[in-house]
From TrEMBL:
InterPro entries: DUF881
Gene3D superfamilies: Protein of unknown function DUF881 (3.30.70.1880)
Highest taxon above the source species: Bacteria
UniProt keyword annotation of Coiled coil present: yes
Protein transport keyword on record: no
Keywords: Coiled coil
Residues in coiled coil: 53-87
Name this protein carries in UniProt: DUF881 domain-containing protein
Short name of any one Pfam family annotated for the protein: DUF881
Similarity field: Belongs to the UPF0749 family.
Amino acid sequence: MRRKVRSRVLLTFICFIFGTMLGFSYQHTKEEEPRRQWSDSEWKKEYEYRSALIALQKENRSLKQQLVKKQAELTEWEKKLAEQQSNEVGLAKEAEQLRMHVGKARVKGKGVAVTLSDSSYIPSEASATDYIVHEQHVWKVVHEMLISGAEAVAINGQRISHRSYIVCNGPVIEVDGTQHAAPFVISAIGDPDVLSSALELAGGVVDQLVEDHIDVKVEKQKNIVLDPVFAPKP
């Protein structure tokens, strides 16, 4: 009886060991099965894919470097273009200023207007020519305005330039060949405070004109418009 029991126990133990070995072998085979499914052609494709991916990544890095370089070049060109545009704007402003100073451009702005009139009182024993406005009186005002920074000057609305001339012709004066009668309004665009102060200095232009029996009125103005210079008559 005991032998039968021992035989059964031994047989059971052997079956257990064999079953364990069989299960382990099956599990090991199952885990390795996916690996065994990769064929040589599949490994070759995997290698090709990986190689292509590496090549693409390398090309992408190269393209990024080129992009950074091109962006730097573009920034440099934009900077040069901005400098060129700035220079062109500066040249345009300079040309406009030159046109303004030589009287070739219409200008407007703040300034002063000086009115010169013949004396309202002429003594009977005096000569009338000593109490009227002459070209030298007009020139005094014009010169003082230009020296004090006037950007543009006109006489009775007629713009003058560096080529202008003023001469007396009887009771009138000629500005570049155009006759004007008194009163003479000399308009100048510039800083009103500076221009008026320069004219009204003690012993300055206004005082000199008053001594010559000329009626003088200086007015600050907020909006003066001066047309371009007319070509002087030959």
